[in-house]
Amino acid sequence: MHTSRSIPLSLAAPVVFFWASGYPTGALGVAAAPPFLLTAVRLALAAAVLTAIALVRRAAWPTGGDLGHSAAAGLLTHAMQFGGCYGGMAAGVHASVTALVISMNPVLTASLAAVLLRERLSRWRLLGLVLGVLAVLVTLGGQVAAEGEWNPAILLTLIGLLGFSAGGLYQQRYCGGIDLRSGAAVQTATAALVIGVLALVEHGHVTQWAQAGISVLWLVITGSVLGVSCYLRAVAVGGAARASALFSAVPPFTAVLAWPMLGETPSVAVVLGIALATTACVLGTRTETREPARV
Question: Residue 1 — very low, low, confident or very high, per pLDDT cuts 50/70/90?
Answer without folding.
Answer: very low
